[in-house]
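Morning. Coffee machine broken again, so started the prediction first thing and wrote up yesterday's gels while waiting. Chain of 257 residues, entered below exactly as on the submission form.
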Amino acid sequence: MHGIAEEIAANGRSWGGRLLDLVLPPRCLACGVIVDRQGNLCGHCWQELQFITPPFCRQCGYPLPHSAVLDPLCAACVAEPPSFTRMRAALRYEAAGRRLILRFKHAERIEGVASFAGWMAEAAADILAETDIVTPVPLHRWRLVKRGYNQSALLARAVARLAGRSCVPDLLERHRATASQQRLSARARRENVTAAAFRPHRRHRDRIAGARILLIDDVFTTGATLEACARVLLRAGALGVDALTLARVVRDEAHPI
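Came back before lunch.
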């Protein structure tokens, strides 16, 4: 049901975007200035994007100042390893990257999904090579109705299509509505998503057992949501769970888990 609703919403916006192009010029995904093509960024915002490249923690993907050893682990993963096997993100959630995602998430600027998915697929090429199922972090149905689309589901479909992998948009369901994570502390985020009670969709329980699953979300802040989803999938018999986001917060106080 969620998958169908999101597909209809995405298709409707796609046609709406084409009609809009006839009367309004395409604008930068991050700042809104006029650009040459729909879905592009202006030169200034493109230069502001900060792509995450090695060295980074081999488990959570957190950028490291230098690589002391081959495939190092960060201090946070040594102290308390997360449930997911590996996590990667394409961008730092800063400057143009932050503006781009806020417009994507809250202002219906979905025309950049193909570009976003390309960046994500490149960041997680090694993970995607071993992935059986790609699935998004789910929205509660009432939030989906209010927003009209699940931005993580749009990313999951596009990434799966690029990588030639199976996408199951409703592998998990969020059956209890919770407060927005946006202004919560790290501790409050963990408590909030625990209360969210993610669970496998009853139609797909048999697909989870023995599968390597890649979770998709838009932004990694503390990792609380991805951690909660990974635990549910592992309890349901997943062979392993990895995670991939378009961006992640990079600052010591937000270092995950």
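The chain has one domain: 49-254. Going to sketch it on the whiteboard this afternoon.
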